[in-house]
Amino acid sequence: HLNYLILTSFLFSLLLFTVLNCCEGDILLLLDSSGSVANYEFSRLLHFTAELLRPFSLGRGHVRVGLLQVGTTPNLKFDLDVHNSQESLQKALQSVSHLQGDTNTVAALKVAQRLLTEKNVPKVLLWLTDGVQPGDVDKPMTELKAQGVSVLIISTVHGNYQVLQRVVTPPLESHLYSVDIDNIDIITEDLREAIIKIIRAERLSVVHLTSHSAVLQWRPILRADSGYYELWYNSILKTEPEGRRTLSGDSSWVELTNLQPDTTYTASLRPESNHRLFNTLSVDFTTLPDVLSPAVVSVSDSGPHQIRVSWGPLQLARVQRYTVEYGAIPSGHVQTVTLDSHKNSTLLTGLEPGAQYLVTVSALHMNGKEIAMSVRACTQEALPALADLQLTPVERKEVQVAWQAHQEGLKGYWLNWERENTHRSSSKSSVYLSAASQSTRLTHLAPSSRVCVSPVYSSGLGDGLCCTAESHTG
């Protein structure tokens, strides 16, 4: 039993030593401190973060940690260069206060872009959020990832999961966690291991990937005068000749081009030096499928006489022009609009109300190939307006309202007016009446109240009429 305890203690010490000396990189904590996060939830997130980071050696040359709070305005609690010891970091985490306010994540991400600019070290943005109203974070997150930042996310289960899936850095299974706040401790080891894989000192990683290219990045361990790197790569199935590159000792990244789409490659990097031997670094990656525009066509801003058609992705270097053809189904006259390669939407006007259209977007590519995609789109019905509206004074502050409307497809009416309250204040009032109603009496009208009646049809609201109820003193 004693031997077991000694062995266990030794293994734990060895593991701790491995974690302490494993890594070099920057970790910026993006902590949701807005009003949507409960105080208990906020304190649990702080405690979890403290335990997650406890094993790491801190400071330049090791792991630097910063904390940026999300609220109405961003609050940089401490920058990346502030804490060089666990004692200092743990004390700082205990003193973080809950900001409350709005969830302005976009503003905080702009600050994060300015903070995570250190070159030649891996960078991690760890976003801890309840996911409520994350905002339009796609663009700033994309810009961060273009800077070489790996985005990892913890959501306390009631968040907008689709948004989080889009902005997290793959793989999702180790970089995106959705957990109940009371069970958050169960992900500590998995998340820590995911961070270690990113900021491990010796590694070759893929920081950008397209269907025909890949950017590989590594922590530089040589100098221009102390050696060089040998790089070789090939598809797993060896369907093409092996690629080889010799890179200078001060290199830290390389872009591989002319790759095949949807193909798995393996790449190896060997540092060569007369001073010492280095391990060969390797990475496998799969290029993206070859997407040719238009891959997506969507319809919006539909009205009785117009629809907006949008498409993507924009491929300026590959597309000469776009052609949009549209005609009413089944046998309407087909019209054509031609647009240059910089356009990804157009507004189609002069259409028939309540009609179905077939819209086809075609892209003529530089290589002469033409790609097309079609969608069906419907214009809205032209809804009849209210035919007549009359106000007749009855008593003081009372009027009889009468109207006429087209009965076909009619569901009812919406009435809006200003009602006088106590102390001569007024408030807006409204009521919905059935299609059988053609008049009603309004009481306690505010002076010069504006009375409006709008017809309601099955497909929407028709144009209404308004009259001003003049004061009646008779």
From TrEMBL:
Parts forming coiled coils: none
Superkingdom, taxonomy of origin: Eukaryota
Main location: secreted
PROSITE patterns linked to this entry: FN3 (PS50853), VWFA (PS50234)
Keywords of the record: Basement membrane, Disulfide bond, Extracellular matrix, Phosphoprotein, Repeat, Secreted, Signal
Domain Fibronectin type-III, residue spans: 200-290, 293-382
Domain VWFA: 26-195
InterPro entries in UniProt: ECM_Assembly_Org, FN3_dom, FN3_sf, Ig-like_fold, VWF_A, vWFA_dom_sf
Record bears the keyword Signal: yes
GO CC entries: basement membrane
Localization of this protein: Secreted, Extracellular space, Extracellular matrix, Basement membrane
Signal sequence region: 1-25
Function statement: Promotes matrix assembly. Involved in the organization of skeletal muscles and in the formation of neuromuscular junctions.
Protein name: von Willebrand factor A domain-containing protein 1
